[in-house]
Amino acid sequence: MTLVRSGIGCVAVVAMFVASATLGQERPPKHKGIFSRLKVGQSVSIKDEGAAVSISYLDGAVPLAFKVTEVSENHIVVEDIAGVREMVVPVYAVKSVTRMKTKFK
Asked: pLDDT of the chain along its 105 residues, tens only?
């Protein structure tokens, strides 16, 4: 009986150490991919550059040709302003993502 109690006590102590070690760890930082600055609901412009596309957006709330509906590390989904066409843009088809400033210091 004493052996069983000491075994349970050891298991409890080990469980506390494991729990405290995992709770104290910091979460890894989010991936900083090419789409990291794009947000759902944001207006963007997409220009065909031949083998790839260029995506641009304004830092103000100016409506552009497309609206971002989904953002992932490996693709984005955009919808045209009429709501008729939805397009998936994979990361390998993007030449650049450009922010155009509307406010200067």
From this structure: 554 455 555 555 555 555 555 555 556 556 668 999 999 999 999 999 999 999 999 987 789 999 999 999 999 999 999 999 999 999 999 999 999 988 777
Question: b or e along 20-57 (b: 16 or more beta carbons within 10 Å of the residue's beta carbon)?
Answer: eeeeeeeeeeeeeeebeebeeebbbbbeeeeeebebeb
Q: Mind spelling out the 3-state secondary structure of the chain?
A: CHHHHHHHHHHHHHHHHHHHHHHCCCCCCCCCCCCCCCCCCCEEEEEECCCCEEEEEECCCCCCCEEEEEECCCEEEEEECCCCCEEEEEHHHEEEEEEECCCCC
